[in-house]
Amino acid sequence: MSDPTEVEVLWLDKRIENRIRFGRIAGERNLDRHRRVLSFAPGSIFGFVRWTSNDFGTVISRIDILRAVASGHRCSTVPYVTPGGEILLRLSGWPKVERVLQMIDAVEALGIDPADVAPDHWHHVHNRLSVNENPRPYTKARHQAWLHRQKVMR
């Protein structure tokens, strides 16, 4: 197996939280009470949520949906992700992050693991997050079409 993509997750009460929202974790190692490193196999998709706050409230809210890359392949650098990943979705600002988290919840409500969703869905979510437009929901029919396409392409 190729080297995994590693993500450092961190939690400092009421200050910083870097966490994985979804994805199939291939390995885990604890660094200390507040930090762990999670590993993802090449090709796997995961959601990485980060926020930072200070005494006056949240300073940064960000979500990245990434595909882990194999060693030697091109990738984009993302803080706390080694070596980086293929960015499927990258948004910042709490209103947008919250809407994406709601979309992830909706996918899970269908009984679908968000890590199995068609990557193109995540690529296009940002186009539909304007204030007045409801994003096109991911449906079981779309998911079945994606799975069928994957089967045909093998």
Quick description:
The chain has 154 residues and is of the alpha+beta class. The chain is built from three helices and eight strands; from the N terminus they run E-E-E-E-E-E-E-E-H-H-H. A hairpin with a 3-residue loop joins strand 1 and strand 2.
Structure explained in plain terms:
The structure is a single chain. With 154 residues, the chain is of the alpha+beta class. It has one domain. 24% of the residues lie in helices and 40% in strands. It contains 3 helices and 8 strands. The chain has helices spanning 94-109, 119-125, 140-153, and strands at residues 5-12, 16-22, 27-30, 35-40, 45-54, 57-68, 76-78, 81-92. The protein has a 5-stranded antiparallel beta barrel. A hairpin with a 3-residue loop joins strand 1 and strand 2. The longest helix is centred in the middle third of the chain and has 16 residues, at 94-109. The two termini are 20 Å apart. The model has no long low-confidence stretch (mean pLDDT 90).
What kind of sheet is the major sheet?
A: 5 strands, antiparallel, barrel
Query: What number is the mean pLDDT?
Result: 90
Beginning-to-end CA distance, first to last residue: 20 Å
Rg estimate, integer Å: 16 Å
- Provide the succession of SSEs: EEEEEEEEHHH
Total number of helical segments? Answer: 3
Proportion of β residues?
Answer: 35-45%
How many domains make up the 3D coordinates?
1
What is the tally of beta strands? 8
The geometry reads as globular
Placed side by side, the strands forming the largest sheet appear as 1-2-5-6-8
The low-confidence runs, each spanning 5 or more residues with pLDDT under 50, are: none
How would you classify the helix and strand content by structural class?
alpha+beta
Helix fraction by DSSP (H/I, runs of at least 4): 10-25%
GO molecular function: hydrolase activity, acting on glycosyl bonds
Keywords: Glycosidase, Hydrolase
Organism: Bradyrhizobium nitroreducens
Pfam family, one: DUF2840
